[in-house]
User: Fold this.
Amino acid sequence: MKKKLFLYLLSGFMLLQNSNVFAEVLRPDASAFPNRTIIIGTYAIVIDHMTNSILEKAENSAQMENQNHIYYKSDINAGTWYDITQSSDISEISKTVDNIVSYEQINSLNLTHYTNEKGQTVDLTTGQQTNTSEIGDVAYPQNMPELKGIEEELQIQKALKEQGNKQGTKCCDSIQRVTQSLYEEKNPFLQQLQYFDKQLQNMEDFIVALRAEGASLEKINEAENQKTAVENQRKVLCYQKVLERLENEMTKLDYNENAALIAKYSEYITNIQTTLPNLEQVQESETSSQLQKMLLEAEKSFQREAGEGIQKGADTGLEKILSIKAAMAGEQPNTEEQKKQQLETLKEAKQKAEQNIQELSKNGCQTEQYQKALQNGETESVLQQKQTEALLALNVALDDVTVYLEQMTEYLETEEMIDFYEQSIENVQNAIEQFNENSAVAEQAKTTLQNVKSDFENKKNVLQLNSMPQYQSAKQQKQQLQQQAEQKQQQYLSAAENGQTELLESAKKERDDAIEQMQQAEQYMEQVEKELQKNNGMVEEEKNENQYTNTNAQQNIENEQNANIEIKKEDNYTEQEKAEILKTIQQLQLQQNITFLEPWHIVFQDYDVKLLSPIFMIEQQIYVPAQELARQLDAKVYKGNINGDYILKGNGVLIQYYLGEQTIFVNGEEMKISPAPAIYHNKAYLPLHIFEKAYGMEHIQNGNDIVVYKI
Assistant:
């Protein structure tokens, strides 16, 4: 913490500098560095010429080289070097002698760059002055870690070229074309690159302004995150251009004569293609939640405003990003202003989700993608897949409205919430009535819509009942009488056991009186509920009839889907694997009151997945071995040392959970699961639907057999 504080104090010395080419110099000796020189990582910097850019690069080099101590040449005790890693103030440096560092130790450090008294930054590996913005910048391809070794290869081919070697000349020219600065490219690429440069500089200025005005660490960190996102966009642009160069050069080289270089180029291409997915921004999909869509829009807006130097617009955009992220995580705001912002965010998200429901209903889940596929003469299975995707988007939108209404109850009075529920009920009813009957998914969609409408009506009824003083009074009276009846029952049993005849009779009478009064309170509550249902158009008979119809419709749909299931079962398991799995199941059945199943009951038809640990079903949920499945889906597993949390991360997916806790985070969205994650046979288990949400999957079930497929 002290180290971070000290580095923050250095920001007061930071001045931006320009640089020009100058003659080659050698690395200064420890004695030759001027006073007020600081060494961070592999960078030696005269502190008066420290900039944010240099400090960031120096800290990065400290991590990469594991050179984490900070050294300072004092101007208080002139010429003396101190280890100031644990210092929080420069005035502390010369107070003790146990932190003095010898010249020999300073000379033994690996230093790569030196920013001198003139503000010029020198590359100590070449002796040439360099622009700090070029250090590590992938707009200069030789800085790309994916092209490791290309500079050495260039030197080899240069030597061959100087000897007059024909192939060496060809290879040398080829490598020089690949490593040529991207600023030498023509428009429109150059315009894009320069726009990113301007955007990043303006974002840096915005962050400096935030710090100067004392903005919260949360705001500053989010602005830094957005700057990193723009840096990644710039990197993607540069990587794609170098990919283009590499592919072009491979077509120019003769394989028989330049096989080694072609192989190198192929390796570089593979390296870059592996890096790109980690840099590319997550794209909005039809099945994204409304808050996720709003977040992407808000991030683009902030990046645009901050990148254009529009500070007021950038500040507004940053607040919106923080509000959306807080809503996604279910966090409670601290200030009234933040509460107001989050409520507006939830209202906007609810409105957009309901607009999406209306659009999907009007076209019967036959979206623009469906219409294009139809015009292109795609097969029936493709058309059905498009409708299934749209149906999933409808379900996501309905889930969104449900969640947003629940979150809004934290900010609104009961009467306001009743109005919002009535509004949503009306919108869902409108969606049911206007749903395109010609759609293949009409029946299934209407069933879902009706179920959600019923849920909203129930929640509205609960709110209305809770707002009735007479109902609440009866409810409280019922609870008190119930407790009284239980106490009298205990007295009655105790009196019977001890033969206390008089107490036995009085306890029995008081118990019966309490039960009778409790039943009267219950009858009154039921009367109020029925009257309310009647007023809301929810007669119990009609409700039961709808529920029966909906259940039958859903069952028919499931039966129709299940009829086409093909289960591969245990065909791809060896006899030894099956024997070990069955043995594990037998052991678990003796230890746990849960029914475990063989993993071949579940088939991942679009994935290369074969589970070797049992699965189980509990409360109609399928539980799978989390870490085993994650690794087979190319995710990495991390275990936190402090919080005891587990993180499954890969391919843009992030699942975080804690053993024994029902809260789980899926791609940043908080969810509740029951039962909580637990360990069985040294394996942590999670519900299958967590992976389905994270990876965009669904499953069809036929008895104990399950098919998981990509949507």
Remarks:
- The CA atoms of residues 44 and 275 lie 31 Å apart.
- Residues 1-25, 538-545, 547-551, 556-565 have pLDDT under 50 and may be disordered.
- The two ends are 47 Å apart (CA to CA).
